[in-house]
Every structure is written in C-alpha cells, then in structure tokens.
Design brief:
With 459 residues, this protein is mainly alpha-helical. The chain has a single domain, classed as Hydantoin permease. The chain contains 18 helices and no strands. It is globular, with a radius of gyration of 21 Å. The termini are far apart. 53% of the residues are buried. Bound molecules: phenylalanine (PHE). Phenylalanine (PHE) binds next to helix 1, helix 2, helix 10 and helix 14.
Amino acid sequence: MTDRDKFKSKIGVILATAGAAVGLGNIWRFPVETGQNGGAAYIIIYICFILLVGIPVMLAEFVLGRHTYSNPIAAFRQLAPRTPWVWVGRLGVFSGLLILSYYSVVAGWTIEYSYLAITNAFDGGTPQDYKDVYNSFVSEPILPIIYLVMILLATHFVIVRGIRKGIEKFSMVMMPMLLVMLLVLVVCSVTLSGAGEGLEYLLKPDFSKITNKTVINAMGQSFFSLSLGLGALCTYASYFDENTRLVKSAFTIGLLDTCVAILSGFIIFPSMFHVGHHVNSSDIGPSLLFVTLPNVFHEAFDEIPLLGYLFPVVFYLLLVVASITSTISMLEIVVTYISEEYKVRRSRASLFVTFISVVIAVFCSLSFGVLKNFTIFGMTIFELLDNMVSNLFLPIGGMFFSIFVGWKMKKQLVVAELTNHGNLSMRFVSVIIFILRYIAPIAIILIIFNQLDIISLLS
Ligand code: PHE
C-alpha cells in the first residue's frame, strides 16, 4: 500500500475531514430541527449525543480505516475474511453513491440561489413571490439538472487530483473561507435589533419541550451531521499517517462541526426574530433556506441596502462551499473502492461514478417536477432515497462499525490505533471501547426503530 496517497499535514487532516462533516446538515437541517424541537434544550441533547455516540463511532471508523489503509469493503474483508461483515462496507459504498446523488440536487439549488442573490433578484419581492420563485424553479426540468451536473463535475475535478493535491488543498482554502463567511454573517445577524430574542431561544433551554421524539431526532441529526455510518470517515482515515492522533482529531472535528451548526442557528434565528417570524411554524420546514430566508434577509436589512445585498450573497455562497466539501467525501468513498478493487485509475473511476450519479440525480431532481406524482411507499424518489439512506442505512452502518470495532476487532489492535502504538495517553481508551460495545449500538437501535415507525406511518 506504499503507493497510496496521504494527507500531508495535521491541519489538512482536520480541515478535509471537517469539510466532509460540515454541509447542508449543519446549515440547513440543524436549524430546522432546532426550530421544530424547541431550541436550546434540543441543542443540549444534541451535544450530549455528539460526545456520547457520535465521536466514539467516528473513532470506530478512524480505527478501521487507519489500521487497514484501505476502503471500507477491503477493510472488513481483511480483518474478517469470508464473513458477511463485508456487506457493511458494501452498504456504505452504496449509500455513498445514493447520498451523493440526491444531495447534489439541493447543493445545485444553492448555486441558483447564489446567482439570484448576486443579481439582486430578491429585492422588492413579497413572501408570495419567494414561494413562487422556489416552486417554479425546483419543478423546472432543465435548470436544476444543469446545476446538479455543475456540482458533480466540480466534485469530480477535485477528486481526480487525488488526496493531497485535490481534497486537502481544496479544503485548506475552502474551510477557512467558510469559517470566515460564517463569522461575518453571525456578527451581522446578532447585531440586528430584536436579535436578543433569537439568541435567547437558542441559549435558554426549556426542558418542558423535550419529548422522546426530540431525543431520537437529536441522535439522528448528530449522526447525519458527522457523516457517520457509510465509511466516509473510514476512507478518509485510510489516508491518515501513523502519527495522526485519532482521538484528538475526532474531538476537534466534532467540535468544529457542532460549532458550525450552532453558529448557523446564530445567523438564522436572530434575523428571523428580528423580522417577527415565528419559529415552529411552517416557515421553519425544508423550505427554510429557499423561501423563508430570502424573505427574512430582505426585510432584516432593508435600512442598509448594501448589507441587504451582501448578506444573502455570502450566505448562499457559504452553502455552495459547504455542500461541495461534503459531496467530495461521498464521491471519494466510491472512487477509492472502485479504483482499488478493480485496479482502475482514479480519474476513470471518478468519471464512471460521476456519470452514474448524474443519472440517479436527474431522477431525484425531476421528482420535484414532472415526476412529482411518481411515488413509492407514498414518497417521491428524492424523499425515498433521503429517508432510506439517512434514516436507515447510515444508522445501520454506524451500528455495525461500532460493533465491529468494539467486539470483533482484537482489542490490542484498537488500543494500538487509539494510542498510536502506546505513544499517546490511554485516558479515554476504555471509555471509548465501552461506548462502542454497549452504548452506541443500543442508542442506534433506538434510532432505527424510531425511523421504521416513521416509515411505516408514511407508507
Ligand atoms: N455531514 C454532511 C452534512 O452535514 C452530510 C453527509 C452525510 C455527508 C453522510 C457524507 C455522508 O451535510
């Protein structure tokens, strides 16, 4: 495996892996979930899950990837030959392909919205106008497809350049830019009048709003946000070198991902409260980014037109960047697998996967328009893939990753990885192994049961 590419620097490892984790899940799904689940109390529970389940499962993927220096399928095959464990890897790679396909549809929308923001198209619209623009755009047959192809091609061009020159370099430029954009938006938003109410909503917990469902949703979201369960992080870890400190990296990435999610809340809620929007209403659903926010931004800064113009421009560009650093990780899992398994060049493997993904993504995109009425189990193609992958495949994958590393892999190998062969402190090691053995699998089974219930209700 000496010819395998590797991340060059510690900071490259952190930024690339954090880039995989930070995405629409942080800037879109997290604020929506927070709004629907009662604000600060939800955030506290979310953070507990990141610490208790998310980071340990991330470590399970890291251990597996770095120990074997190979893609998830080969990793399971190497450590448990001729057993069904290889199917966990296969499910992961397959999930990577599906998630890449439907995620790139929404990622594509963020390009259109950046364009609308840059051309000042939100100026002077009424709330109904924003709704109309969104509905007619997503149901159009051609334009959204052009955008999703742009996202997938951009992803492809980063991937073909390899780990160090592609993923690492791209993340080293894009992630700091993303953090700066995020901070600038936070400052603008929290200084609006009435922002205090929005901040209070995010910071003052009301535990009476917590239900079982809140707890389970927080767990599911922590999983999605950290990109766990499909082997993306296992694949990235196969490009870490032997000096990378797994535990420290996992905590840093978990912290960064959580900060981005919470800061997105600091952008969205103060500006919503400023213009008198109520959270918990339909405004906070999936259309938050594309219907509610253009309206909010437009009203929030109506006295400072320059800011009213720049704020949405920066916000939507932020979304484009965050989406691409995530789609890169999804494509990377499949490309690593195909190029290693079938001994083809990365560029060929990537072209092939990108092509397949475009085909699936086209169907996902059309499911907002001409294929709207084509449903399976009562869901459109897009909804079906999203539900199946994020609510079922990822938790199942994550559960098996943690069971494998907790129970099946030799304990001394796990300890050796976590401590860099005895060179690092053992402080957290037994806690991590305990969580991987008991807490994570049980917690994840709960998510899965809950999701199955939702799915049966939907169908
Ligand atoms: N974590 C990404 C986000 O927050 C989504 C993702 C899930 C990426 C699974 C890769 C794998 O947007």
